[in-house]
Structure formats: C-alpha cells, structure tokens
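Posting here for the record, re: heme C.
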Amino acid sequence: MMNSAMRIMLTATGIFSFVTIAQASEDPHARFTEESRKTAQEFMQQLAGTLKQQLDSSGTESAIKVCKEVAPALAQQYSTDGKTVKRVSLKPRNQTQGTPSTEETSMLVEFDEKQRAGADVKTMETTRVYTDADGSWLHYMKAIPTQQLCLQCHGKPENITDNVRALLAKEYPADRATGYSAGEIRGAVSIRRAIK
Ligand code: HEC
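Prediction output follows.
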C-alpha cells in the first residue's frame, strides 16, 4: 500500500524530472547532447547486432564486409537533419573515413586520459562547441570500448588468424587498428552539426 508521504514523494520526483527535461530541451547544447547520445546508441547497437549475427552465422572473414560496408552505410543513414555521423580512431583502419580531425583527435586524447585516470569507458562522452575555418559547430563524441569479440579483427596480430590478417592487409594496407585489448578505447562515434 502506498501511504500519502510516499505519494507526495513520487509526485515531487515526477515534477522534478519534468522540470529537468524541460530545461535541457531549452538549452541547445544539452538538447544536442541528448539527441546525439540516442543516435550514437542506436547506431552502435544496430552495428554490433549485425556484426555479431554475421560472426555467429558465417565467421570472422565474412564479417569483415559488415565493418566495411554496413558501418559506413548505417553512419550515412543516421546523418540526417544537418548531422554528420561517423566513426573515428587515433589508430584508424580505414584511413579515408576513420582519420580524426584536429578537434576529434583532441577529444579522443582526452578520452584516453580520462580512462587512465579511472573513468568508465562505457559512459564516456563529450560535447564541444567551437568555431573553425569552416564555421561554428556542435560536436558530440561517444567512446567505443573494445569488447572481446572485436579482438578477432582488432586484437594483437598473433591472435588474429592468418586468413583474416591476409584479408585485412589486402583491403587496408595502411591498417593501424590492431594490437588492442578488451576494455581499451577503440575509437568514438562522432556526431557534428553546424550552428546556424
Ligand atoms: C570481422 C572483423 C571485425 C570485427 C570483429 C570488428 N571490426 Fe571494427 N573494423 C573492421 C574493419 C574491416 C574496419 C574498417 C571499416 C571501414 O572500411 O570503414 C573496422 C573499423 C572499425 C572502426 C572505425 C575506425 C577505423 O579504425 O577505421 C571502429 C571504431 C571499429 N572498427 C570498432 C570495432 C569494435 C568496437 C568492434 C567490436 C564490437 C569491432 N570493430 C569488431 C573489422 C572488424
């Protein structure tokens, strides 16, 4: 049974969260962060789901094409309403799509520093507002943790099968995205929008 004190507490909590949400939506910075967090989560969940399915059903070699084709296609699909969604890394595999800008590099370095200081990678994110030669930007980044299953293609070279290593070397001659351990930051989802 709910007594009246409990009921008042619940109502107060309800009002409080309503006010918090209303405030967040009025602040463009907070609203952008909220929306981007949701986009990044959906994007990563969809990608991880597709990757896992392909790994389970057809193995590592055939899953390479999920990363090569599905990841950029999904990123494109989420790049709506003036947003650009992509994945970047300090040690990219795809040099064309995965190389970070100056601003992204600085945010990725900050993530690595935070992790060394003990912060949890799973919830690591940041939003910056800045102006560069191309305009003014709202820019959200969410850290991507390396999971155990990622090591088949991003782990220490001696732990990657010869076939997978050969396929990766053929597709990505300048590949830098190996040598990771589980828990390390593999890169980030990057979401940027121009401020009008
Ligand atoms: C089957 C092999 C394979 C597995 C497993 C795999 N990746 Fe990748 N990953 C790739 C390939 C190939 C690319 C390059 C994709 C491209 O051309 O854009 C890539 C690119 C990336 C990128 C983009 C930045 C860059 O380096 O170019 C990130 C971030 C990434 N992977 C994270 C992960 C994470 C996190 C996992 C585990 C959940 C994972 N990958 C599992 C093969 C794999």
